[in-house]
Amino acid sequence: MDQARRSGTTVPALPSRRHPIRPGEAIPGAPNPGAPNPGAPNPGEPAQPDLRAELAELAELNDLVSSEPTQARTRAAELEQRAHTLGARDIVAGALLVRAESHQRTGELTTAVALISRATDLAAPLTGEHLVRACLLTGFVYNDLGDEATSLQHVMDAIGAFTDDVPPRLRARVLNKAADLVSDLGSWSDAMLWYSRAEEVARGDARLHLMVANNRAYNALLNGKTDDALASVKILHDLSARYGHPLDAASLDTVARIHLMAGDLPRAAEVALQAVAVLGTMPFKSADVRPYYLLTVAVTQRAQGHLRRAADTLAQARRACIEEGYTRVKNEILREQAELSAALGDHRAAFELLSAYVEADQQLRSSQREAQAQIRQALYETQTAREEAARYREEARRDPLTGLRNRLYVTERLSELLHDDDTEITLALLDLDHFKSVNDRFSHEAGDRVLQQIARMLEAAAPDDGSFAARFGGEELLLVLLTHQAAPLVEELRLAVEQHDWNDITPGRGITLSAGLTTRRPGDTADDLLARADRQLYIAKSRGRNRISA
Question: Is 46 left (phi over 0), alpha (psi -120 to 50) or beta?
Fold first, then answer.
C-alpha cells in the first residue's frame, strides 16, 4: 500500500466526495414511498424492459468479485454491454463498479479510478447500494495508495449512505473497513467499537463473520495484546468449526503471527506455510497480500535459524510487490532484511538496511500523526459520532503534536477575518532554522519536543485579541496577529527562542527561527497573504537566517 507522493508516482484523480447521506435521510433519485412508481406503465409510454435477469446477475457479480476478480471483470463487461443496449443506466453503473473493484483487487488502481469515475458520471447522483459501493471502492484505492485518512473519509461517506436496501454483506464490509482504518490511524478502542458493529451485521454469514473475527485478532496482535490475541485464535477456530468453514489465508497468516508473538515457533512456521499454500482459495483477494504472507514465512524461518531459506523467501516477497509498491510491506521487508543480514554476520548491510527502514518508517509515522485530526473529522461526519461532534470538530482543527491550530483552521479563520474590511491582519510565517539537523543529531523525539516547546512560546506570544498560532506542517509555524505591534512582538519571540536554554533537549545546540511578515492590503485573499509571507520568509533565510523580513 504505497503513497504516491513519496514514491514519485502520480496519484490518479479520484471522484470528488459527496456530502454523506445520513441513515433515514432521502437519497436523491431513490424511490420515494408515496411518489409515483417510475417503473409502472403509463398510457402512451413504451413498456419498460424486464431487467430481473440483469439485476440478479449484477447481485451475483458483486459477491463473485471478491473471490474471482478476473472472472467477475469479464462477466461485468458483458453485462454492461447488455444493460447499455437496454438503456438500463443504473445496471451499467453497477457493472462498472464491479469492474472497478476487480481492477483494485489486482492492483490496477489507475484503471479502477477511471471506472469509478465513469460510473459516477453516468448515473450521477449515484443512489442506494451503488453510492455505498462507489464510496467504499474509492476508500480502498486511497488505502492502497497509503492515504488512510482520506480512505476513512470515503468509507465514512459509505456508512452515511446506508439505507435499508443496502445488503447486509456490503454493510458488514464497510463497517469492517472502517474499523481497520480507525485502527491503522491509532485509535484501538474506537476500532473495537466498529468491529463490534461489523460483527453484529455479519453474524450468520460464515465468510464475513470469520473475516471480521480475523481482523479483530490481527488488531490485537498489532497492539501487542498477547492474551487477547491468543483468545482470538481460539475464537477463530471455534467459528470455523461452528460454520464448517476452513480458515482462509488471511486468518492463517494472523494465527501464524500470533503464535510467533507468543513464542511458539514450530506452530507459527507450520501455519505460515499453510497461509501461502491456500492463498489461491482466499475468498477476499487483494493485490498486496502475497508479499505480506511471504514475509511472515521469512520471519518464522529466521527465528528457527533457517537463514538462507529466509533470504530466498524475502526475495520472493520483494518481487511480489508491484512496481509502485506498497509502503508498509516494503518497510517491513527492509526491516526483516536488516535482521537477517545481522544474523548472517553482514553487519554493514544490516546497518544500511536498518537506516533505510528507519527513514521510511519515520516518514510513515509522521504522516500518521498528521492524520489524527483528520480521523476525528471523518468520524464526526458519521451518525454514531454526532454526540461527540463538538470535540471532534475542535480536534480536527488542532495539530495533534503541538496542540496549535492547523492549516484547516487557518484557512477557515482567515476567510472569516478578511470579510471585515476594518480588521488589521499581520501574518508571520516562521521556520525553525536547520531543523533537520536536530532530528538527525538528536532524534525525531527530540525534534518533537522542540516543536512542542516552540508551540508554547508562540501561544504565549499571541495577544488575547483574536490572534492565534498555528502549525502549517513540519517545522513551519504561523502567527496570525490582529495587533498594530506585530513586528516588535515577533522580534521579541525570535529573541526569546534564541536565548532559551535548550540543553535539556539539544545539549550544546541552540535553536533559532526565521520569520516572514506581511500585513493585509485591500482586496487580499488568504492565499495572497500566505504567499507574501512565504516570500518574506525566503528572504529572511537567504540573508542568513535567525532574522525577520517584513
Answer: beta
196-200's contacts with Cβ under 8 Å and 24+ in sequence apart are 198/172
Q: Are 279 and 249 in contact (CB under 8 A)?
A: yes
Q: What share of the chain is helix, strand, coil (3-state, %, to 5)?
A: 65, 5, 30
The tens digit of pLDDT for each residue in 325-384 reads 466 778 888 888 888 999 888 889 889 888 888 887 777 666 655 544 443 444 344 334
Rounded CA-CA distance 283/477 in Å is: 48
CB atoms within 10 A of CB 422: 4
Is it true that the peptide bond before 125 is cis, omega within 30 degrees of 0?
yes
Phi, psi (deg, nearest 5) at residue 20: -60, 140
Burial of 315: CB neighbours in 10 Å, binned 0-12, 13-18, 19+? middle
- DSSP-derived letter for residue 321 is S
Residue 524: left (phi > 0), alpha (psi -120 to 50), or beta? Answer: beta
Query: Which triple of cell numbers denotes residue 412?
Result: 477557515
How do residues 51-107 score in pLDDT, each as one tens digit?
899 999 999 999 899 878 999 999 999 999 999 999 899 999 999 999 999 998 887
Closest CA to 546 of 509, 505, 502, 497: 497
Element holding 44 (H helix, E strand): none
User: Hey, how many other C-beta atoms are within 10 angstroms of the C-beta on 188?
Assistant: 13
pLDDT at 187: 83
Taking only the tens place, the pLDDT of each residue in 453-490 is 999 999 999 998 889 999 987 889 999 999 888 999 99
Task: Say what the pLDDT of residue 393 is.
Answer: 64
Question: What average pLDDT does the structure give for the chain?
Answer: 82
> What is the pairing mode between strands 468-473 and 476-481?
antiparallel
What is the DSSP code (8-state) at residue 69? H
Q: What is the Rg, in whole angstroms, of the alpha carbon atoms belonging to the chain?
A: 27
Angle between helices 69-86 and 89-105 (to 10 degrees): 160
Largest CA distance in the chain: 89
Q: State residue 217's pLDDT score.
A: 92
Coil, helix or strand for 438? helix
Contact predicate 383/22, CB 8 Å? yes
Instruction: Give the closest residue to 251 by CA, choosing from 240, 265, 267, 263.
Output: 240
**Which residue, among 299, 305, 300, has the nearest Cα to 337 in the 3D structure?**
299
Kindly indicate the confidence band of residue 168, based on its pLDDT and cuts at 50, 70 and 90.
very high
- Label residue 29 exposed, middle or buried (CB < 10 Å: 0-12, 13-18, 19+): middle
Which helix (H) or strand (E) segment holds residue 515: the answer is: strand 513-519
Per-residue cell: 362: 519515520
